[in-house]
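Weekly structure sync, notes
Attendees: PL (lead), two postdocs, one rotation student
Agenda item 3: pending single-chain targets
PL asked that the sequence for the first pending target be pasted directly into the notes so everyone works from the same version. It is reproduced below exactly as submitted, 107 residues in total.
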Amino acid sequence: NSGEYANVYLEGYFENLGYRIDLVGVKQNNTHDIFEVKPYPSATACIREALGQILHYYHLLEKGNYQIDKLVIVGPAELNDNDSNFLETIQQSLNDITLEYLPCPIN
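Predicted structure, written out during the meeting:
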């Protein structure tokens, strides 16, 4: 829901960190959601490809004193049961970091 964000920054806003984060949403309470977009036809492929990147961005922003609320991987496929189980297993190992997958079909 874009209404929950006070500001949304597209790729390039955090280039001073040396990386091009796809999208960062800043909420009213000044916490940040990091979005990484992948084009693969399966949710698992998107998650596998984005996971290292998005965790690295989390590290960089946390080190820069940004408060991160959640990490969101965006891809064209809906989650199936296997994808959901994979995501849940990763989420359990991350402790306090919220990781989500957002399907965004390409028309």
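Discussion points:
- The chain has a mean pLDDT of 89.
- The radius of gyration is 13 Å.
Action: rotation student to compare against the earlier draft before next sync.
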